[in-house]
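Can't paste images in this forum, so I'm doing it all in text. The chain is below; anyone willing to post the predicted structure tokens underneath?
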Amino acid sequence: MSTFLAPVERPRNPMMKLVYALDRRMTGMVTSPIAVFVARMPVAFGSFYGKLSRLDKKLTLPHDTAVIIREQVASVNLCLFCMDAARWFALRESPDNGARFDALPGYRASPLFTEAERAALDYATELTASQAVSADTFARLRTFYNERQICDIVWLVASEHLYNVTNRGLGIGSDGLCELSADRARKRSKPASADAR
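Text version of the structure:
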């Protein structure tokens, strides 16, 4: 599926040229949110997006919990780019993260998630789907997380929603980062004799 606006192939801004080069180095391509959205906006917007991800490093919530909350919000919002990108980053951290991502649709019954994570995922799902949270859902969340961690969860939901709405609003779907990564891994692991044929 093509995006609603065509990707900017060759940005004129020197800073954006650097962003393209860094994106290519990290992912092997210029990702669609960069080429479709960020390239058209003042540099401050790209800088803002970069700050969002850096702010995640200041969260008190366990990183593994933060990652699955972002993925759940992207799934509820059907942001295919964000779902693929979150999985790609998680798999780069550890191949074991794939099992938890695969189990996320059934998190309520999966042994791969703790009760605390289930409470956080229920909260994130309800807030994302209905833009509100019941008192019962909040009370359950509060049994597992302190006030700062609850604010961390709200931050994750809100900031992920920003990414999701931006991508969906411009028709940005998955860039296939996980598939590209798997293809590269297969090519690297292919025996040299197979290449010689």
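The first helix runs from residue 14 to 27. Residues 52-187 form a domain with the AhpD-like fold (CATH 1.20.1290.10).
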